[in-house]
Amino acid sequence: MDTLTQAALGAAVGGAVLGRRLGRKAVVIGAALGTLPDLDVFLDYGDAVLNVTEHRGFTHSLFVLTGLGTLLALLAWRFAPARDITLRRWWAFFVLALVTHPLLDVLTTYGTQIWWPLDVRPSAWPVVFIIDPLYTLPLLVGIGIALITGNGFRAPAWGLALSCAYLLFAMVAKGVIEHRLTPVLAERGLEDAPRLVQPTPFNTLLWRVTIIDGDDHHETLIGLLDGDTPPVVETFRRGAELEPAALELEKGERLHWFAGPYLRYEVRQRDGRETLVATDVRLGFPGFYAFSYALATREGETWQALAPTEMITPDARADLDALGQLAARILTPEARLCTSDFVTDRWVAEVPEAC
Prior knowledge:
By secondary structure, the protein is of the alpha+beta class. It is 44% helix and 18% strand.
């Protein structure tokens, strides 16, 4: 999630745990702890693929953060002037303010290495977009009241309860969407295909579904307010013929570890040379993907890995017209929104009649 939300979450947790005793200080310290894991954005590994795949790494590990929280609790219990606060309460204050950060990140699409240093893929079960005002607002109101009144407990606790209730709503919404998706997959024989169900920007009413199907990937939008209206499924090429070449590269394999099968491959001309480019189709929106990487250049019949790999500036960013179409589609299935409208023709494999 964004930095403001993580700071607000840490502040609310801090107020809920020690607000009665520390007042505003609990909120302020909690906010600082809530943002601490994201300091890894300042680490530069000198390589675009490493920078993106190491983010939300060791600084988001439940093992690391629990250990750090325990150490801080011991120090506070031993040296803080507030001698009436028990070690258990200090431990809950520091550990919860720290570990709620990666646990919230897990509920977004990017992927979080909460089990670092274990050799497992990043965890992600997306139920909220990386910026969601309906989640953040109750937290901000709660901590704002606490900072104004000096009562650091009650308002943050209520804000935290409301934000958690919103997450529960999002989880239920995702379950409804996946239920509506089942017959669509069955009709196309894709019951076992890799699929990603995630909310569209800034809401949990309209959900984007990405399905990997060999050389292609399918996209559809399903809304909670769609009723019995069947979803429109669009099909796009993903350059799967280039995937074996990418996986032979160390950074290509690393990117696959990070993004799974949700990658698109292409050859682009850059500085007069053929360049192998991989794009993460999870992040962004069809036609407005945010993360593309130059992995290698062609030398004769072989690909020579770039050292370092480079991030490529997106071809386009979502404009007001696209965002307006998205907002209209949230509320009604009759509002036409075909993602193929935003995608270059060379990637479009199949456009349904509804588009």
